[in-house]
Every structure is written in C-alpha cells, then in structure tokens.
C-alpha cells in the first residue's frame, strides 16, 4: 500500500478527514454547519465540509455515501459518487438527499460522507470506423438474464 500526500485546508470546526479503522478505504467527512439541516424526500441539499484539498495529478477524490446512513435513513448522494479533480481548489460540498418519506436531520459535525483517494488513468481517444466483435456485442441492461 502506498500513501499519497494530499495537501489540505480545514476551515471547519471539525477534525481533518479521518479513517475509522486501519482497513478503511474512505475517510469520513463532517457536516460543517452551524445548525441542524432537515433533508426531505426529493429535495436536494448541499452540505459544506469546510475542507479544501490539493491532489497530485493522476489522482481523484471520490465522495461516497455512508452505508449506514443509506441503509437506515435512505440518505444518498444525488450524483452517486462525486469526483473531486486534481485541479479543483474549492470547498468540498456534499450533494445529498433522502429517499425515505421521513425527514432526516443532519446535525453539526455529523459524519456525512466519505472520501476515497484513487489513482486514475488519462485516456488517449483514437477515433476508428469499427470496433472488434465480441460474444456480448451490443447486449446490455440485463442481457444476461440477471
């Protein structure tokens, strides 16, 4: 396992992102809010974290929902997984909603999402006239019967 140096500014009242266990892939991010926020089904909210980062080129930060909040309260990220690019210098915000009918209360300092630092490749796109044939072909969206 290789550690990646990430420069960070913390303008929040809460700790730096931290890993809950030695085996955790995601570091917890905290809701940097002054008072409770209520999430309602179908409404989209932006939760500030007070965190700003600088990633090395070739890395991204993936912002992911916390599984416990998703299972117990239907709290999810609107964009599935958020991507923080290496050249972004703004505050990390969490775009969030709840899927349940019951409102969900976000409290100041609550662990609201997790951040996974991931290496990625840059594609070199080459335009062609045809692609090679495969057994699967154009099959998708349940083509295997599952």
UniProtKB/TrEMBL annotation:
Protein name as annotated: Deoxyuridine 5'-triphosphate nucleotidohydrolase
GO MF annotation, one: dUTP diphosphatase activity
GO biological process, one term: dUMP biosynthetic process
Known cofactor(s): Mg(2+)
Keyword Hydrolase: yes
Top-tier EC class: hydrolase
Keyword rRNA processing carried by entry: no
This enzyme's EC code(s): 3.6.1.23
InterPro entries given in the database record: dUTPase, dUTPase-like, dUTPase-like_sf, dUTPase_trimeric
Family membership: Belongs to the dUTPase family.
Function: This enzyme is involved in nucleotide metabolism: it produces dUMP, the immediate precursor of thymidine nucleotides and it decreases the intracellular concentration of dUTP so that uracil cannot be incorporated into DNA.
HAMAP family reported for this sequence: dUTPase_bact
Keywords: Hydrolase, Magnesium, Metal-binding, Nucleotide metabolism
Catalytic activity line of the entry: dUTP + H2O = dUMP + diphosphate + H(+)
Pathway(s) this gene product operates in, as recorded in its UniProt entry: Pyrimidine metabolism; dUMP biosynthesis; dUMP from dCTP (dUTP route): step 2/2
Originating species: Anaerofustis stercorihominis DSM 17244
Top-rank taxon, per record: Bacteria
Every dUTPase-like domain range: 14-145
Binding sites annotated in the UniProt record for substrate: 66-68, 79, 83-85
